[in-house]
Amino acid sequence: MAKAPGLKEKRAASLLRELISEALGTLSDERLQGLTVTDVDVKRGMYDADVYLDESIFEESEKKEILKQLKRAAPILQSYCLEASGWFKCPKFHFKFDDQLKNQQRIEELFKKIKGEHESGE
Q1: How is domain 7-121 classified at the architecture level of CATH?
Q2: pTM for the full model?
Q3: Closest CA to 91 of 107, 75, 104
Q4: Is residue 63 a contact partner of residue 55, using CB atoms and an 8 Å limit?
């Protein structure tokens, strides 16, 4: 069973969220500069980190291309974070699009639909 992240991982995730956003702004690719980091999940030992990005303004084809570009840019982003944080090591970044907002919107739409059906049934 996986343990919940400790204080060290939470602090690292918070700092990485800020640093990765800053680092993205330094890249030459305008699409990458405009990305919003929604969350960072640092794994135990700080060897890996899942970096979640806002997906709301991108088509599926764009998302694939952006993830490919981020994979190429990861060493640059990691170097930036290492230098800015003063850490001895930086986790390896795994970029993903955050679909929680889309799921939340779907749930809200379902509740509205259920409420509408309930009200019209009375």
Answers
A1: 2-Layer Sandwich (3.30)
A2: 0.77
A3: 75
A4: yes
